[in-house]
Specification:
single chain; alpha+beta; 11 helices; disordered N terminus
Length: 356
């Protein structure tokens, strides 16, 4: 009778221990705390193991039944431990997701768009106007030979006009076939290169960066952009030049723009002219922008000099052409009322952001 009571006591203790273990297990909220519970109930010196050691005092016929129950309790507690671990992991994962979640119903953070430099914007606008007139855009090297930059443009060595295009020399050896190597002073060499390899008719505009040995001030920079144009055909005349440049000025500065041509000298054209437009700020009445003259000088032009045509093996008796050139930054200054060319390359974001 005492043996049955002892067996019953152990069974009761196992059942009570299982309830206690479950109650305690549910109180844990962090997975790291479960190791203590495992040691207390399932470890080598744990409470379940201690009860199993008491089976030796039971009758032989009771030991299998009570031992099987103890193993069952131990297995159920191990399963409960795994289930609690999984539940805590799911909870932690859910908390992490909640903390990292994005509210897709809110507007997104604005992405600040970049913009083209004002020089690039004006350059694209200028090229677009001439492309619509049928001119082709071509480019050439910035490091150029004296032959193309000066000699073939009717500016031989020691010509006083070279002083207007003082530049930076890479290799100043005039004994070479093409003369010295230098940083080009204008994009006119591109015109020469095209004519040298292309039979007439020719109609091009040549954009690009040019270099001058200039003292930097509000209206001069050592590096700037230029666009030059050239048209050569059998019946090209000064009237064609005036028509093209008048159309260009009105497209860029407004339909009511007036255009004026004044005689001027350039060694590679004859006759040559300076082109001015009526001030788009004051309408020609006179203001600070036009220095109270009513006119703004925008570019130089003229009919291609016969010596330039002969240098590229064009017959001046059969072909005639016109050429023009303008500084891109100067066009931007005139259009937007900018009074200092140095603003374009000072990288002042406050200045650049005005041209969106």
């Amino acid at each position: 009778m005492a043996d049955e009571t002892t067996a019953a006591d152990i069974v009761a203790q196992l059942e009570a221990l299982e309830r206690e273990a479950h109650d305690r297990l549910e109180q844990f909220t962090a997975e790291s705390d479960l190791s203590e519970w495992r040691t207390d109930y399932l470890g080598r010196s744990g409470k379940v193991t201690q009860l199993l050691r008491g089976l030796g005092g039971l009758p032989k016929e009771e030991r299998p039944r009570v031992g099987q129950l103890a193993n069952t309790v131990k297995a159920r507690l191990a399963e409960a431990l795994e289930a609690q671990q999984a539940a805590l992991r799911r909870g932690q994962h859910a908390e992490t997701l909640k903390a990292e979640a994005l509210d897709v119903t809110l507007p997104g953070a604005p992405v600040r768009m970049g913009q083209l430099h004002p020089t690039t914007q004006i350059l694209n606008e200028i090229l677009g106007i001439f492309e619509r007139m049928g001119f082709m855009v071509v480019e050439g090297p910035e490091v150029e030979w004296d032959r193309y930059n000066f000699a073939m443009l009717n500016i031989p060595a020691n010509h006083p006009a070279r002083d207007m295009w003082d530049t930076f020399y890479v290799d100043a050896d005039p004994t070479k076939n093409f003369g010295s190597m230098l940083l080009r002073t204008h994009t006119s060499p591109v015109q020469v290169r095209i004519m040298e390899n292309t039979p007439p008719p020719v109609r091009i505009v040549a954009p690009g960066r040019v270099y001058r040995n200039e003292a930097t001030d509000a209206s001069h920079e050592a590096i700037f952009y230029q666009v030059e144009g050239l048209a050569v055909d059998e019946r090209t005349s000064m009237a064609d030049l005036k028509g093209v440049l008048t159309a260009f000025a009105r497209d860029l500065f407004g339909a009511n723009t007036r255009v004026r041509f004044n005689c001027s000298y350039f060694p590679f054209v004859e006759p040559g002219a300076e082109v001015s437009i009526s001030c788009h700020v004051c309408g020609g009445d006179g203001c600070r922008v036009c220095k109270h003259t009513g006119w703004l000088e925008v570019l130089g032009c003229g009919m291609v000099h016969p010596n330039v045509l002969e240098a590229v093996n064009y017959d001046p008796a059969q072909y005639a052409g016109f050429a023009f050139g303008m500084g891109v930054e100067r066009i931007a200054m005139l259009k937007y009322g900018i009074d200092d060319i140095r603003y374009f390359y000072n990288n002042d974001i406050r200045f650049l952001q005005q041209f969106r």
